[in-house]
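Hey, can you fold this one?
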Amino acid sequence: MRFHLAAIMDGNGRWAAARGLPRLAGHYRGVETLRRVVEAAPGLGITDLTVYAFSSDNWKRPAEEVGGLMGLFSDYLEREVERCAREGVRLGVIGRRDRLPVALVRDIEEAERFTQDARRLTLRIAMDYSSRASILDARRGVGLDTGVPDVDLMIRTAGEQRLSDFLLWESAYAEFWFTAKTWPEFSVEDLREAVAAYSRRVRKFGGLAYSDGLAMDSGRGAGVAAVEDAGIDTVVSR
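Sure. Predicted structure:
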């Protein structure tokens, strides 16, 4: 069963500022959180993980921070590609590539080639990404099919409760889980709590739940089944 988790990794800069550190230090700490989440995800039944790393609107940030982020992305790909291949993690990047540094695009392409046969977890990193732009491109017939499945669970950190132009189409029936913790503070236990909370929800997809007279499975999505297969306790309210 497929279970697609999406995460808006918010609060890196705020975490750093609260500690008197440069914003980029928060982004580096956020990479450590991502590494822990990627390692834990398959054990929680997660088969697809899509993370929001850099939106198309983030180009508005100071040039120093943007340049640092581009370097951080390259560093992450170079450091993690062998680990990902070894642990069955397939890497992919969604979003525009024509505005990214040429060296970073090469790193992306190499990481995608190197991990293309991995099947345990698909990790998609959204870079220079705008969901509205993707939808408009598709309407014009110039957009590409990214192969991103519907989102089952969307997590956002740092107390914000909005999508911020992330996977708008794919999140039509997503469940949401919010936390006041910043992304650098987000732990594997927080991830487990979010997945457990998701597993207790009834997903109707516009129809009726079994409590309204339908069969029990009508309110369960494939993501819930994946969580159950992973051994996470599930409760569906009657």
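The helical segments are 12-17, 23-40, 63-86, 102-114, 131-140, 188-199, 222-229. Let me know if you want another pass with a different chain boundary.
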